[in-house]
Amino acid sequence: MRRPPFVTEGKLLQVAQSAAVSVAGEGHVASGRPGCRIPVDEQVDLLKGLPDGWLDGDGQAFDGEALAWSAKLLTGVVDGFDLATPHIYPTPDGNLRAEWSRPRWEISAELDPSRKLSEVRVVRLDADEVHERTFALTDPGQETLLGSFLAGQLRGEE
Asked: Where are the alpha helices (H) located in the chain, listed in sequence order?
């Protein structure tokens, strides 16, 4: 009989399987900004090696041009608005999700490189409050509006 991976106190006993492990803790990157310790371009670069089916048979491999567009956009927004470095995750449908955590808020921006679109979702963790906004990044000035919106949310009241 297999033991459960946790004991009743919540202490981890074992890890049964792992596809990849990397350090992505909170801290300060070379720029001195808080957030993920791995710079945006390095996080995005790590996604190049994901094959089709990377998520239990689902999940698309990433197109190099799509990753380059995403890295350039996120780096520009993070640097241009002096934002904390987000944690970047792949989605099964070929998009990227950038996430920022604050004490009472979770902020995510999903980038769809094929449609040049970003959907931002801001969720207050201790209340029933959600803010959502979509940015059509093919339109002039939308990158600036995206950066301004994220900066406002990240610098808002704790």
From this structure: 40-46, 64-80, 142-154
DSSP string, 110-148: EEETTTTEEEEEEEETTTTEEEEEEEETTSTTHHHHHHH
pLDDT in tens, 115-137: 999 999 999 999 989 999 999 99
Quick one: which of 28, 19, 66 has its CA closest to 45?
66
Residue 35 near residue 29, CB atoms below 8 Å? yes
Torsion of CA 85, 90, 91, 96, to 10 degrees: 50
pLDDT in tens, 8-37: 454 544 554 445 544 444 444 444 567 999
pTM of the model: 0.77
CA dihedral 106, 34, 111, 147 (to 10 degrees): 90
Domain boundaries, the chain: 26-154
Amino acid at 6: F
